[in-house]
């Protein structure tokens, strides 16, 4: 029994967040956390944006 405290606690697995927390907001369609605000922000998540473009022909 010689366990040491790991200084780098493992982060919970999930969707990788690549934008700032202040840019995070719920998708207007599926309500999943997405980059809504700031540079590159969009009210729709990538999945919904792709579906919307496909529906409207780009
Ligand atoms: Zn969505």
In words, what does this structure look like?
Strand 1 and strand 2 form a beta hairpin. Helix content is 19%, strand content 10%. The longest helix has 11 residues, at 46-56. It contains one helix and two strands, in the order E-E-H. The chain is elongated, with a radius of gyration of 17 Å. The protein has a two-stranded antiparallel sheet with strand order 1-2. It has 58 residues and is an alpha+beta fold. It has one helix at residues 46-56; strands at 24-26, 33-35. The mean pLDDT is 83. Bound molecules: zinc ion. Zinc ion binds next to helix 1.
Question: Outline of this structure?
Answer:
A two-stranded antiparallel sheet has the order 1-2.
Secondary structure: elements and pairs:
Layout: E1 24-26, E2 33-35, H1 46-56
Antiparallel strand pairs: 1-2
Note the main attributes of this structure.
about 60 residues; alpha+beta; two-stranded antiparallel sheet; about 10% strand; elongated; binds zinc ion
Mean pLDDT, all residues: 83
Helix fraction, binned, reads 10-25%
Bound heterogens, unique:
zinc ion
| Secondary-structure class | alpha+beta
Give a quick account of the main beta sheet: strands, pairing sense, barrel closure: 2 strands, antiparallel
Strand residue content: 5-15%
Strand tally: 2
Which strand order does the major sheet show? 1-2
pLDDT < 50 stretches: none
Number of helices: 1
End-to-end gap: 60 Å
* CA-atom Rg in angstroms: 17 Å
Global outline = elongated
What is the element string, with H for helices and E for strands?
Answer: EEH
């Amino acid at each position: 029994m010689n366990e040491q405290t790991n200084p780098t606690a493992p982060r919970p697995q999930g969707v990788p967040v690549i934008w700032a927390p202040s840019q995070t907001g719920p998708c207007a369609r599926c309500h999943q956390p997405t980059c809504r605000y700031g540079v590159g922000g969009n009210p729709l998540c990538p999945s919904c944006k792709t579906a919307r473009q496909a529906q409207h022909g780009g």
